[in-house]
Amino acid sequence: MFIKDLKVGEEVTAFYLVKSKNVKTSSANKPYIDFTLQDITGEVNAKLWDAKGDLEALYNPGEIVKVQASVTQWQQSVQLKIIKIRQSEDSDQVDYDNFIPTAPIDAETMYNEILYYINKMDSADMKKLVLAVLESYKTELLYYPAAKSNHHAIKSGLLYHIIRMLRSAEALSGIYKNINPDLLYAGVILHDMEKINEMDATEAGVVETYTKEGQLLGHIIMGIKRIDRIAEQLNVDSELSLLIQHMILSHHYEPEFGSPKKPLIPEGELLHYIDMIDARMYDMNKALKDMDDEQFTDPVFVLDRRRLYKSKYSKSE
Amino acid sequence: MFIKDLKVGEEVTAFYLVKSKNVKTSSANKPYIDFTLQDITGEVNAKLWDAKGDLEALYNPGEIVKVQASVTQWQQSVQLKIIKIRQSEDSDQVDYDNFIPTAPIDAETMYNEILYYINKMDSADMKKLVLAVLESYKTELLYYPAAKSNHHAIKSGLLYHIIRMLRSAEALSGIYKNINPDLLYAGVILHDMEKINEMDATEAGVVETYTKEGQLLGHIIMGIKRIDRIAEQLNVDSELSLLIQHMILSHHYEPEFGSPKKPLIPEGELLHYIDMIDARMYDMNKALKDMDDEQFTDPVFVLDRRRLYKSKYSKSE
Amino acid sequence: MFIKDLKVGEEVTAFYLVKSKNVKTSSANKPYIDFTLQDITGEVNAKLWDAKGDLEALYNPGEIVKVQASVTQWQQSVQLKIIKIRQSEDSDQVDYDNFIPTAPIDAETMYNEILYYINKMDSADMKKLVLAVLESYKTELLYYPAAKSNHHAIKSGLLYHIIRMLRSAEALSGIYKNINPDLLYAGVILHDMEKINEMDATEAGVVETYTKEGQLLGHIIMGIKRIDRIAEQLNVDSELSLLIQHMILSHHYEPEFGSPKKPLIPEGELLHYIDMIDARMYDMNKALKDMDDEQFTDPVFVLDRRRLYKSKYSKSE
Amino acid sequence: MFIKDLKVGEEVTAFYLVKSKNVKTSSANKPYIDFTLQDITGEVNAKLWDAKGDLEALYNPGEIVKVQASVTQWQQSVQLKIIKIRQSEDSDQVDYDNFIPTAPIDAETMYNEILYYINKMDSADMKKLVLAVLESYKTELLYYPAAKSNHHAIKSGLLYHIIRMLRSAEALSGIYKNINPDLLYAGVILHDMEKINEMDATEAGVVETYTKEGQLLGHIIMGIKRIDRIAEQLNVDSELSLLIQHMILSHHYEPEFGSPKKPLIPEGELLHYIDMIDARMYDMNKALKDMDDEQFTDPVFVLDRRRLYKSKYSKSE
Amino acid sequence: MFIKDLKVGEEVTAFYLVKSKNVKTSSANKPYIDFTLQDITGEVNAKLWDAKGDLEALYNPGEIVKVQASVTQWQQSVQLKIIKIRQSEDSDQVDYDNFIPTAPIDAETMYNEILYYINKMDSADMKKLVLAVLESYKTELLYYPAAKSNHHAIKSGLLYHIIRMLRSAEALSGIYKNINPDLLYAGVILHDMEKINEMDATEAGVVETYTKEGQLLGHIIMGIKRIDRIAEQLNVDSELSLLIQHMILSHHYEPEFGSPKKPLIPEGELLHYIDMIDARMYDMNKALKDMDDEQFTDPVFVLDRRRLYKSKYSKSE
Amino acid sequence: MFIKDLKVGEEVTAFYLVKSKNVKTSSANKPYIDFTLQDITGEVNAKLWDAKGDLEALYNPGEIVKVQASVTQWQQSVQLKIIKIRQSEDSDQVDYDNFIPTAPIDAETMYNEILYYINKMDSADMKKLVLAVLESYKTELLYYPAAKSNHHAIKSGLLYHIIRMLRSAEALSGIYKNINPDLLYAGVILHDMEKINEMDATEAGVVETYTKEGQLLGHIIMGIKRIDRIAEQLNVDSELSLLIQHMILSHHYEPEFGSPKKPLIPEGELLHYIDMIDARMYDMNKALKDMDDEQFTDPVFVLDRRRLYKSKYSKSE
Fold first, then answer.
1. Which residues on D lie below 8 Å from F296 (Cβ)?
2. Which residues of E touch C72 (CB under 8 A)?
3. What is the pLDDT of residue A112?
4. What is the pLDDT of residues A30-85, one digit of tens each?
């Protein structure tokens, strides 16, 4: 049974992926385990009150477990009270991918779509620079999410974010002729790339922590340093390198969101809006897709606590 | 000679359109006329010091005059000191259109492109409503600007704004499948329509003043009232009318820019960003198009006083 | 025993009104009911741990129940642990009004006081318009609160809010002769009227939810549309209708509180301040009235978390 | 001829009061005098180009002069070019009061109205304290304005401000029974009293400068110190003194307007709103009273640059 | 065992100081005691479930108790479940000072260091004034903390804050010759002195509550009044008194932090920065001192929720 | 005669340095030159109305001219009307240094003082890194100002800013033992170094323009990139390089002033405050040093338009 279908008062037997695990002590002074379990449809808190054995060794994050549990309610949320638990075995033939929320397009396919856009560039220097950066990140890019908990916090989410932005960039630079598509594509591909070094993520696309450099400098500054060095090594035209650094610097647009400069070129301005559109469309679709028509959502934290409306004219992806 | 080509110290003889005219008194206590003259390339202040005749009757806004003048400098700006002036005559064969900055696409063509998008709508109610509103504004829409002094403050500027937004709307609703194109097109076509009643503009596309209702309520509120009444008259589904009203209400996004509600549906969110993109691309292109490469503009008021950069990779429309 | 007199450690037997009810599951995996009970002096949380029977059907909001309970403490608050519960019966002869906080003046009396002010108006158009709107809302107006949880969130609270503002309006327009009392009275009577359609309230004056149109447009926009239509139907002078719409639009004063325009006429300015005074006097009296002298209240959420002071010179209504 | 009736292009001979005078040097390197002249209807800039004699000694502020001048225009404003000027003489029989904007009620009458309100107080301590403070300021209070350039910047303007606030205080404490009128009257009478020591004003009610203590501490802090000392000398109940100090401290309400604490008692809250109402009604009446109907004013600086509307339903004081 | 060394799952027997105590009722409807216990290394929550005897009389704040308890975990924090508890006895020979976080320098020594700085002043009036104020506060100053929960919330914390600021003042006025050290020392010594009357603290340096005057006026206003009176009594030069009052008024710098005026003299400007430096160095040292290298702290509330970094180059006091 | 001693109405003959020069056209349509002239005491506007010869070639910025001029007044300012002008000749024996505001300490001396602080560092890596950066900038550092128009906008102003900050850093790290002086010194020396590449300045210490990279990235980002590369080349410990980059990134403290991260280490926090103190002491001393006692300055733009007070207790550098 999928997590989103759990009903209070019933009992469930199912496989779930352990997302996090904490050994705690109950008010009766006994150890218990506090889990976050997940499948492709969501997450649920679960308690194993009667925990025995080597609690540190068992049921660790990244493992799949089979649980029998009663579905209870705590405050506004569903919670599992685990009756039985064991680790999954080969004979269970569980498919790991069924437990990890993942972008709807295959990672290699998306990677190749980026290559297609690089190929369309007129400037040889631009091609050379973007390709070199891209290839140096390929391994991680195939599974990295775009964020810890906001938009595109899924496996291959960063790739998916880039791809949809590239498509928008192509469409809009067809309408606005004052845009140099080479610059815009480069900005799209590189703007968030250093999130890979700002956050530590598992191959399941889950961010576990921010890195030391990520906290002290942030992905914007790290990205600028990276472009600066690689462009110099490849002997790329310095104006071109500077413009890309400026686009990375300014793409959050407002100082309080991390950009000390606003865009001074149209490609930087458009990059910002394309980025916003992709994030907002993702978050709104996620909030609305499982709702009934003519209902309002609960306040959505990442959208300024707005309560979105699902009308009878709504569509979902 | 075009206004943008005037050089301090030279003398010029040319036809210009009178944009504004004020009769004033000089420090020597004599009457003089203070003009703003324009042609398709810009505007210039001009003084007629030695003014004779019925000053109130002569050389009024909207008329084309022939002037002989010396080109002087006042503070940072070029100024004309008029030596001779007369009204244009039929025999001059001046073409009025050479003096009025106008959208680069023919107005009727743009109007028909709107009809094309209305035609693509699935919902009969939506078609009926949008068409009724559009047709009721047709006469003014063909020449109205989109603003008094900001983006698209040109003849047929409002139409041009709508057309480019519709094209973006079409492209982006092909990428973001959670968008109902009918709703988005309707929002684009109607979001600024009541600017026609908020501002009084001449047929040359120049806004002269804000109307009483424009100042006391503003085009957002006026637009909502208009949709509300027409939808009722046409018996349009009330949810549909309500959604369009909500999109109009929320399209400025922030309370301090006039929207008491933020968008609660994805189509409203996207409408806002498409609107921003079109305004910003217009303003940036205008600021950069006559610049040399590798130069910064003066601070651009409407872009938070940013000094934009024209790189060697820049393109202009 | 009144709720405000409950003491931790004692036992109580009393009648209370069910304000809300939720069926939940305990940590021991058994169903229980979580109530909010109220009487005229306040509200208290109550738990029925040993719940039997058809829990969905029993003890619903709006019903009066008789409970025997022990008074316990949870965190900083008093809580009831229910020992026995039953629904009230005719033979109990409970008076529903003893359980509902209500404005201190009779609703019909207040309604008539509004009519008295309408009668004093000089302008026949104004009279006609205000009277038509008022009468169309009469049924709901007699019991509607003015808010969900802030000032005047009591039965007939909206009427009480209007009445006290009318009295202030009369007094202040006697002092400030640049005020047209007709306009000010009309603004007072109509400024919040569409709260009746923005919020769904029970006849006990309790708001249960915001309506769809309330969330997508809000009572200010809804009020403007209503005035606009009715004034047109009644053939009211358009300037007069416009001024009232402007007063409704601007009465929250700041964009971030929902007014895209600030008042441009003195009557709108004064309306705002009269509205603020009535709300603040209500909230401050509520916070202070049961306090001892020379004490500070807990932080009052609706007053920016201020801790009010009850001095020995304080008075209560 | 009154200043407000001057017409560009005409010549005028009239008496005016010198408000300010500066001796300057012209571009032709000759001395001239730059005046601000005033009468009861307004102010006008005037130039005496051909200045002879002891320029420092002649035509100083506070003197009345007779001028013959031509009325010219400079930028948007009317300006006088003085042809002849002389000081007024006894034989001219000019009435000084015709040149000074003054509150519409006689100063002694207003002072007595304050005494009337003090007399109504129940608390002997309050009476004693307020009376002592009031009497110590009587001389200045009779002519002081309430501000340098904003509301009530007229002779006896501070008294007029107090009187209208007291009337509002009386009316509103009749409606809101949780208000102690003694406290509110005391707050009204004392809240701005130290403006007398914060600003240096002439007997014509014109503020010339801020004092040293005014700039380093401001009238709010100065007022608190004053009350603190006098209350101690008079042996007034300390709670009462503290409450008045708190009302003075909090009456500007927002930190950025000078109040480090918000009101914690209802009388302080109401004092703030009564103060706002009186200032705003004064400023709005001043901006609108000489306008034609159905016109908007120029942006009014002190009202957040709003352009007020004078409707056909407007009234003026 | 020190509180910072407690480990979940172990049992502890130790003496602790009772910081706060609340008698509550459990879900099983039995009374229990909820303690905050402290020693010199920190604080811990403790529950006495099986509480017997006169619960109001036993184990009150300020007493030292001996407890036997098991160390458990609740949410993210360590908690004690008390097995046995008794009050400390003379024979236990516990040293009260081991339980109270105290400034690292002896109070009398610090007091004498202030006298040393007063002695260095050139101005006799300044010496006289500062000394008089200092001596009038001596008793409380020896143990008062500088805050309820932020920086220097320890016994003698206010003295420690003053001392370190005086040392900075001395060093910086040696570098910046436009600073009058007399004024700066006076400002440092007096800026927070009225915190002693704003907050009620125990002799252990723990703030229990804010006073009435503290809440209605605050220590800045109270300090100004105090200086004003004492300076007058001692016949101190009025300019000097005014400057000190201005420094107290402006030392929080921003209106929203309580200063209605910004510093208008360099000594006031520098006082603000010295104050900030001392507070921030204290808070940062406290947050980092027990951390391992190359770790980030949890978000620190008083430092805008920053997560500080302890590098391998870090030093602790 | 020094510029600060010019008196309106007199005539002057003196040498001044041309700071800027613009050829303009008068209202009589004749060319004239608009100068800014300077000496060590200030700047003055000057007009050469009767300009003859090759105006583009003559009297350019950086040259010293001898002028005979009458001193006139324009608006609030003194202005020179040039009667005669010629370029200075060798025989005039003017000393260039008398015309350029310069830091009060010799540049080489200051440079050596920096070396002294580097020498005190414990960490060999830190020494190596800071020294390498410093030496690479030595030529420009000897004359660069610290800003275009704010604090330390004088010749060698950047050096002077660094030196005074180093002295404060030494003093305060003696008081606050949780500070690593090596890190703090490094931060002080390097925090603004890239201003040298952000702004183009003449050897007279006058900034003429911002560079392209300066406008697109800013000195903070440029400084981080520089440290990053040099540290890598020199094989400096990466944690140390990262900490210095973080200190540069965070030293403006607030996002709206250019720092996307706040300091996460105490040395960064202290660097910010030392930087503020030095800038503010400089600006305040500059504003007050030529004032009479017991006067207020005009509003000082760079100090939030505060009007500073010069008391009789003030000192100047």
1. 212, 215
2. 25, 27, 29
3. 97
4. 778 989 998 888 889 999 987 777 777 888 887 899 999 999 877 667 899 999 99
Task: Supply the range of the domain harboring residue B227.
Answer: 107-284
Which residue from F29, F215, F216 is facing B72, i.e. has the nearest CB? F29
Q: Is residue F309 part of a domain?
A: no
Residue D12: alpha-carbon gap to chain centroid: 29
DSSP D226-295: HHHHHHHHTT--HHHHHHHHHHHHHTT-SGGGT-SS---SHHHHHHHHHHHHHHHHHHHHHHHTTPPTTE
Question: How large is the average pLDDT for residues B208-226?
Answer: 96
Which single residue is written with the structure tokens 């210009």?
B16
Token pair, residue B147, equals 């603003």
- Residues A75 and A144 grouped into a single domain: no
pLDDT at position A317, please?
79
The CATH number of the domain where C49 resides is what? 2.40.50.140
Of A41, A68, A98, which closes a domain?
Answer: A98
> Contact partners of A by the rule of 3+ C-beta pairs under 8 A?
B, C, E, F
Confidence of residue F23 (pLDDT cuts 50, 70, 90): confident
ipTM, 2 decimals? 0.90
Nearest CB to A313; choose among B167, B240, B289: B240
Q: Write out the residues of chain E at the interface with chain A, using a CB-CB cutoff of 8 A.
A: 8-9, 70, 72-74, 81, 294, 296, 307, 309
pLDDT at A100: 84
- Domain presence at residue A300: no
Packed helices A266-288 and A238-250: angle between N→C axes, nearest 10 degrees: 40
**For residue E237, pLDDT beyond 90:** yes
Chain E residues within an 8 Å CB radius of F309: 264-265
Verify that F119 and F248 share a domain, yes or no.
yes
Residues C85, C113: one domain? no
Residue in A with minimal Cα distance to E71: A29
Q: Are E276 and E257 in contact (CB under 8 A)?
A: no
If interface means Cβ-Cβ distance under 8 Å, which residues of chain A face chain E?
24-27, 29, 31, 212, 215-216
Q: pLDDT for D157-193, tens place per residue?
A: 999 999 999 999 999 999 999 999 999 999 999 999 9
Number of continuous H segments (helices) and E segments (strands) in chain F: 10, 9
Confidence at E205, pLDDT banded by 50, 70, 90: confident
Domain boundary among E75, E98, E121: E98
Nearest by CB: F73 against D24, D212, D215: D24
Chains F and A touch (3+ CB pairs under 8 A): yes
Nearest CA in chain C to D165: C175
Lowest mean pLDDT among B106-115, D149-158, D192-201, F78-87: D149-158
Q: Is residue D177 part of a domain?
A: yes
CATH code: domain of residue F230: 1.10.3210
* pLDDT at site C76: 63
Rounded average pLDDT over F236-248:
97
With respect to residue D273, please indicate whether it lies within any of the assigned structural domains: yes
Q: Do the Cβ atoms of C260 and B264 come within 8 Å?
A: no
Task: For residues E159 and E262, state if they share a domain.
Answer: yes
For residues D263 and D197, state if they share a domain: yes
Local structure of F70: helix, strand or coil = strand
**Crossing angle for the helix pair D181-190 and D107-119, nearest 10 degrees?**
150
pLDDT tens digits, one per residue of D214-229: 999 999 999 999 999 9
pLDDT band (50, 70, 90) for residue D76: low
Same structural domain for residues D188 and D232? yes
Q: Do residues E94 and E115 share a domain?
A: no
Whether residues C36 and C155 share a domain: the answer is no
Rounded to an integer, the average pLDDT of A221-233 is 97
Beta bridge partners of A84: A68
DSSP strand pairing (E199-201 vs E207-210): antiparallel
Counting the structural domains of chain B, the total is 2
**Residues in CB range of C279: below 8 A, 6 or more apart:** C150, C151, C152, C161
